[in-house]
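hiii, so i know i said id send this last week but things got crazy w the move. better late than never?? heres the sequnce for the chain we talked about at the cafe, plus the structure i predicted for it. fair warning i was half asleep when i ran it
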Amino acid sequence: MDISIKNVPDDKVALLKSRAKKNRRSLQEELLALIDEAVEGIPQKFSIDEVSQKVSGLGLKRRDEAASLIREDRGR
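okay and structure toks below
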């Protein structure tokens, strides 16, 4: 996918080019690195199967145990 950013101030472009040069990357590579860094902490959505697998791994014996764990966690 292509992304275009318009009206970027010249001083910002110069700073980005300088940063890219310092990191021995093209401007394109530098921008992709910045995007990767920015989205790194964004939580991902899980599929139903992934959620089911994670819940199964908790070793719960009864259905009401999950609600109990949630209440306990809220109290922290």
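btw DSSP finds four helices and no strands in the chain. thought thatd interest u
miss u guys!!
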